Amino acid sequence: MISTHVEFYQGTKGSLFRIIRTPEHVLAHLLCIAPLFEQANQTRHHITRSAINGYHQGLQTIVYDHYGTGDSGGELVEANLSLWQQDIQRQIEEIKANSAKAIYLSLPLSAVLLLSDEMLSLVDGLILLQPDFNGKRFVQQFKRLALAAKLTQADKKNPTEMNGQENLEIAGYTIDKKLLEQLAGQNLSQLTSFNVDCYWFEWLAKTDELSPGRLKQQQALANKANKLIVQQVAAVKFWQATELQLSAEFLAQEQIAFSQLLSHSAAIS
Amino acid sequence: MTSAPFTDKTNEQKSGQTTAQLIKLLIAIIPNYEESFWHVDTELFGAIAEFDSMTLVTLIGEIEESFDISLDDDDISAENFASVASLTELVLERS
């Protein structure tokens, strides 16, 4: 039976819902950072699966909801980038204060927009799932949801203008405009210290070539990170599919990455 | 003039390749249809239940990435996303 502890952790501004799976012998820690908005729902089932797999390999895994999202306290409209980053940092610092074992972050999709140099200086490795470091593009795509929704709605009210000047309502999310501005300002060039083990999982069919945009991002990170390993996942992008899908190919590759990280951390300690 | 038929054939090939690539993207995003369902005349917006705003925006992202093009917000219209054919036309215009 999996040792699971569910709690409300005191974050920077309010309580954060967390699920912690602790193996009998903890070899390292894995903090799973949820991606933003709808991507959190699209990846939740996979994050849970990864956390369970990690647990079986000796990783203490922590899955939590950002402030104002999921089962955590607060309202999304009260959230900002700095607050979400502080919540991550606080958790990393707490793990570090109680354990000498390695700490890894799992960052799917837009979760990488929350990364900071401070976090990178505290952890030992990253697992990146189809990361998109281009905050401007992420926000553009998110705002397009409002435009697309207009096509499907009977009323032609502009969804982005429903809540006055300061807040936006997009796809059912009420958000402070400033949060989107902060996210749009995030990009890889702001991060300087990538001196950690870094696994980048890129979803790409065997017969396809990497798009110029993705290639550019990979090269930019390769220039910063001296321990970058790019793994190609030749499978359907499970988070995009209109029906729930598990990517067995990815999970198998991720388990190998967990093993490699753990053997690396064991060699160092 | 002997180059016109050659140009027509090239354009036809390009259009066919674009359609094939679009269908590949659509199958990945909406996997619950047989491959034979997808062809140049397959209707999308308003015809397929799964083709909601989320799917539409996902598709836009994939199109931009796959074809290395940028779509304008004005391109997000029922007309452009009416069918695989109209989408092919849009991609070719922006390429």
Chart the SSEs and their pairings.
The complex is a heterodimer of chains A (269) and B (95).
Chain A: E1 4-10, E2 15-21, E3 28-32, H1 38-56, E4 59-64, H2 81-98, E5 102-108, H3 117-122, E6 125-129, H4 135-152, E7 167-170, E8 173-176, H5 177-184, E9 197-203, H6 212-224, E10 228-233, H7 248-268
Parallel strand pairs in A: 3-4, 3-5, 5-6, 6-9, 9-10
Antiparallel strand pairs in A: 1-2, 2-4, 7-8
Chain B: H1 3-29, H2 53-67, H3 84-94
Helix pairs in contact in B: 1-2, 1-3
Can you offer a commentary on this structure?
- The complex is a heterodimer of chains A (269) and B (95).
- Chain A has 269 residues and is of the alpha/beta class.
- Chain A has 7 helices and 10 strands.
- An 8-stranded mixed sheet of chain A has the order 1-2-4-3-5-6-9-10, sandwiched between helices. Chain A has a two-stranded antiparallel ribbon with strand order 7-8.
- The longest helix of chain A has 21 residues, at 248-268.
- Chain B is built from 3 helices and no strands.
- In chain B, helix 1 (3-29) crosses helix 3.
- Helices cover 56% and strands 0% of the residues of chain B.
- By secondary structure, chain B is mainly α.
- Chain B has a single domain (3-94), classed as Non-ribosomal Peptide Synthetase Peptidyl Carrier Protein, Chain A (Orthogonal Bundle).
- Chain A binds chain B through residues 38, 141, 144-145, 147-149, 151-152, 171, 211-214, 236-237, 240-243, 245, and chain B through 28-32, 45, 50, 52-58, 60-62, 64-66, 68, 73, 76-78, 81.
